[in-house]
Amino acid sequence: DGGITQSPKYLFRKEGQNVTLSCEQNLNHDAMYWYRQDPGQGLRLIYYSQIVNDFQKGDIAEGYSVSREKKESFPLTVTSAQKNPTAFYLCASGELSGNTIYFGEGSWLTVV
Amino acid sequence: RKEVEQDPGPFNVPEGATVAFNCTYSNSASQSFFWYRQDCRKEPKLLMSVYSSGNEDGRFTAQLNRASQYISLLIRDSKLSDSATYLCVVNPADSWGKLQFGAGTQVVVTP
User: Fold this and answer.
1) A13-17, A60-64, B1-5, B93-97 — which is least confidently predicted?
2) Pairwise CB contact (< 8 Å): B97 & A105
3) Are B104 and B98 contacting, i.e. CB atoms less than 8 angstroms apart?
4) Which of B87, B91, B101 sits opposite A99 (nearest CB)?
5) Contacts of A97 (CB under 8 A, 6+ apart)
6) Does residue A27 contact residue A47 with C-beta atoms inside 8 Å?
7) pLDDT confidence of B69, banded at 50, 70, 90?
8) Does position B42 have pLDDT exceeding 60, yes or no?
9) Which residues from A are below 8 Å from B when comparing CB atoms?
10) What H or E segment, with its residue span, contains residue B24?
11) How do A10-13 and A107-111 pair as beta strands?
């Protein structure tokens, strides 16, 4: 079954901890993205990648890191430097045209 | 000014009625436009793409007005299942990968 798989769906982080959100796609898409969504706000781009071993910062990259070692995988690490990490995190993938993108089911991160 | 602006709503619509709402964008070079639907606490899902002068998909019609820089979404014969938040998405074309998202318009269809 083709699609984008994010895990975990729910994650709790203690202050000062790093956490990593997984994103895997089997759609053979070249481009992958990470967005953050806060209540009442639009999606904000954290990082994106067009090709393996290359990625670019989005609008709110501070406190986050990513890697793209495989075409299928684009994990996001929320570091302790991210001061307000509680949010809904969405991974997406799409063709290099940059047009239509498809989302995973999202990961809810809560700082406790 | 935000790059993509939407009326947050909610638009309360009786079942069977028609509802329409707009989305304005600031970048005149934008080439492609999309409507996504997002249910509460779920991921956005593509509803329809909007190219050239617009398009129709069943009960949904999207229109593009380049001169005034807005797109619209019209839902006819509203169903209870149409209750959701509708996100307007713009591809600015001059900034690859940086799709611009509106904050969404909430639609509530009531029996």
Assistant:
1) B93-97
2) no
3) no
4) B91
5) none
6) no
7) very high
8) yes
9) 31, 33, 35, 40-45, 48, 50, 56, 58-59, 88, 90, 98-106, 108
10) strand B19-25
11) parallel
- Answer for the pair A64, A79: CB distance below 8 angstroms, yes or no: yes
- What is the overall mean pLDDT for chain A? 92
Quick: pLDDT tens for A76-112.
999 988 888 999 999 999 987 767 899 999 999 998 8
The residue behind tokens 């940086």 is B98
Is the separation of the CB atoms in B105 and B9 below 8 Å? yes
B50 Cβ partners below 8 Å, 6+ apart?
B32, B33, B34, B35, B62, B63, B64, B71
How deeply is B52 buried, as exposed, middle or buried, from its count of CB atoms within 10 A (0-12, 13-18, 19+)? exposed
SS3 content of chain A, % helix, strand, coil (to 5): 0, 50, 50
Considering only CA atoms, which of A101, A80, A102 is closest in space to residue A20? A80
pLDDT of residue A1: 57
CA-based nearest residue to A49, from B33, B29, B98: B98
Dist CA A11 CA A34 (whole Å)? 16
